[in-house]
Amino acid sequence: MKTSLFKFLYRIVPTEKFLHTVGISDSPNCFFCNGETETLVHLFWHCPKVQLVWQTIIGVLNEILTPPAPSSDPEPWMIHNFKNHKSLPTNVAVIVKMYTFSCKYSDQKLNAIT
Length: 114
Hints:
By secondary structure, the protein is an all-alpha fold. The chain has helices at 2-9, 16-21, 40-46, 48-64, 74-81, 87-105. It has one domain (2-105). It contains six helices and no strands.
């Protein structure tokens, strides 16, 4: 777990794009959706499978916070709504990203957290 967190925090997560470039992976496409090239931004924010996880998190947050979050691009909404809790958006983002990272490297599918 420490190694995974270290790789994640220092942005040395080997994406499929990188693995394909160095000849380790057959395809640069995303591990989860296989629809786009897997970059860090795609893997943690734009992948449709990851978006389902984000939507679940936003749904939970909408139950306790107002105004409701938009269905797309949760990051600006999180930053705006947590002005008084500055570490919360970072913590939520780290949790979702670590979940995505751990699913990818344990060869599991993403499931919306309920």
